[in-house]
Amino acid sequence: MAMRKDTLFCPPRLLVLLVLGSLLAPSHQEGDFDKWVTLRLTTNVGKSTGGGKDPELTSAESSRVNNGIEPNNDLGGENGYYKTISESIANIPDNSTSRYVLTLQAGTVFREKVFLNKSKPFVTFKSDPKNPTTIVWNDTATTLGKDGKPLGPVGSSTVTIESDYFIAYGIIFKNDAPLPKPGANKGQAPALRVLGTKATF
Ligand SMILES: *[C@@H]1O[C@H](CO)[C@@H](O)[C@H](O)[C@H]1NC(C)=O
Ligand SMILES: *[C@@H]1O[C@H](CO)[C@@H](O)[C@H](O)[C@H]1NC(C)=O
Ligand SMILES: *[C@@H]1O[C@H](CO)[C@@H](O)[C@H](O)[C@H]1NC(C)=O
């Protein structure tokens, strides 16, 4: 589905587990990822842009930059290898017109809060649908932020995507904050929040 602006994934229950539809992809071969992307981009994004080709998108797809995210590597960015998703994102230049494909080590749990700035469009989080990667954090609406104020349902999302043209493939987004006490009503704990347009899952 193509995401509209301001889509807020904020289900009422805690322990939100979003397993993306792409997990049903038949195989994890590289060629299948490319086919899946092409299919998604033509059927979803194509539709939301009036059915025609989106020149910015086409151009971004033709100049891909590949990053590998593996917790146990020590390359510190060399050859595009990083330990954390946030570190890799920090190294994407503002207003990049290339597609950055962040290949997250399969079957790995990344315990980090991820924020993708509006200024970083065309980013893909990619893993293996048969052995998906999990991104998990545990903030709730009542968790206090750096400013000492509660984060609220919006600020507590594990992953926030502000930018356009985001793609996720084979990724589980999770918030594993404990269930609220019975009667408590401020314990929302969303896993994924997408504000950008033309996102694809
Ligand atoms: C990125 O684009 C925004 C919006 O067009 C602009 O305000 C900003 O200065 C640009 N930043 C860079 C680093 O080019
Ligand atoms: C997003 O990026 C812009 C440009 O680099 C920066 O000015 C802004 O503070 C960033 N926003 C957040 C919430 O980090
Ligand atoms: C969230 O996770 C961190 C790191 O694992 C832990 O220190 C903290 O106690 C957890 N917070 C809650 C509210 O469970």
TrEMBL record:
<keyword id="KW-0063">Aspartyl esterase</keyword>
<dbReference type="GO" id="GO:0042545">
    <property type="term" value="P:cell wall modification"/>
</dbReference>
<feature type="compositionally biased region" description="Polar residues">
    <location>
        <begin position="59"/>
        <end position="70"/>
    </location>
</feature>
<feature type="domain" description="Pectinesterase catalytic">
    <location>
        <begin position="79"/>
        <end position="199"/>
    </location>
</feature>
<comment type="similarity">
    <text>Belongs to the pectinesterase family.</text>
</comment>
<dbReference type="GO" id="GO:0030599">
    <property type="term" value="F:pectinesterase activity"/>
</dbReference>
<protein>
    <recommendedName>
        <fullName>pectinesterase</fullName>
        <ecNumber>3.1.1.11</ecNumber>
    </recommendedName>
</protein>
<keyword id="KW-0732">Signal</keyword>
<keyword id="KW-0378">Hydrolase</keyword>
<dbReference type="Pfam" id="PF01095">
    <property type="entry name" value="Pectinesterase"/>
</dbReference>
<dbReference type="InterPro" id="IPR000070">
    <property type="entry name" value="Pectinesterase_cat"/>
</dbReference>
<dbReference type="InterPro" id="IPR012334">
    <property type="entry name" value="Pectin_lyas_fold"/>
</dbReference>
<comment type="pathway">
    <text>Glycan metabolism; pectin degradation; 2-dehydro-3-deoxy-D-gluconate from pectin: step 1/5.</text>
</comment>
<feature type="region of interest" description="Disordered">
    <location>
        <begin position="44"/>
        <end position="73"/>
    </location>
</feature>
<dbReference type="GO" id="GO:0045490">
    <property type="term" value="P:pectin catabolic process"/>
</dbReference>
<dbReference type="InterPro" id="IPR011050">
    <property type="entry name" value="Pectin_lyase_fold/virulence"/>
</dbReference>
<feature type="signal peptide">
    <location>
        <begin position="1"/>
        <end position="29"/>
    </location>
</feature>
